[in-house]
Amino acid sequence: MPYVIPDIPDIPDIEDLLREPRPRRQVTLRGLLWALGWFAVAVLVLIVLPFLVLLRTSTYLYLDRGVPGWLALASGGALALVVLTLYGAWASKRLTGRARVRFLAKWVALPLVLFYCGYTLLHLASVNAKTERVQSYYTSLHPILRVAVATLILADDELVVTDLSRTPEDYAAMGLPVYEASLHYPQEDGYVHAMDLRTMGRPGWRNMLTQNYFRLLGLRTLRHVGTADHLHVSLPPR
């Protein structure tokens, strides 16, 4: 039987192969949603980071290093200023080819930090205070607690501060035993170191996020029932 040589397919020329377009990757809906999700997370982290640096640094220096309250807050603000300056320098480098660090730090980041801290230290909107008395006593609250609660109000404008400063007579009026070690009393530094936040009428997940937010900052939280269900947030004196 004669031997039959099989047909050998034509081998394409290497130049033809190079000219052929590569197959494009198909963009699936799942992949697109995944990418958008990660992008949203990255943007959120970039937005939250300056606030987190400001507050977490302040509470750390105050509670763990014994730095006085105002100095601890100023140190946290200085680090937040550095973060904002880095943001601006990166954006300026991308857009103009120059970082302009000194200009951005002096004329952009510093005014932003000063304005934000000044606003949060002095202002509590009436819609975020249970009573006029609470609103009027806002500046008696420790500055770190003021900036912390005002920052949360940016994300949760329905948050309500129900109580700040108290006296022993207030406990008697509420039908509660007098608590001599209450942080609602003005402490040695002249500031109240505790505040109560409304939890009634709010979703459980929102109350949970609120409590975890303050815990993340290093503050103490306690969900308990006194005259009403509320979240107690405190900054222990040094």
Written account of the structure:
This protein has 238 residues and is an alpha+beta fold. The chain has two domains: 37-121, no CATH class; 126-234, no CATH class. 54% of the residues lie in helices and 8% in strands. It has helices at residues 14-19, 29-64, 69-96, 101-122, 132-136, 143-155, 168-173, 204-216; strands at 161-163, 194-198, 220-225, 229-234. Strands 1-2-4-3 form a four-stranded antiparallel beta sheet, covered by helices on one side. Strand 3 and strand 4 form a beta hairpin. Helix 3 packs across helix 4 (101-122). The longest helix has 36 residues, at 29-64.
Rg over C-alpha atoms, rounded to the nearest angstrom: 29 Å
Q: What is the typical, i.e. mean, pLDDT?
A: 87
Number of helices: 8
> Could you give the order of the helices and strands?
HHHHHHEHEHEE
Straight-line distance between termini: 103 Å
Can you tell me the number of structural domains? 2
The residue ranges in which pLDDT falls below 50 over 5 or more consecutive positions are none
Q: How much β-strand is present in the residues?
A: 5-15%
| Number of DSSP strand runs | 4
Characterize the largest beta sheet: strand count, sense, and whether it forms a barrel. Answer: 4 strands, antiparallel
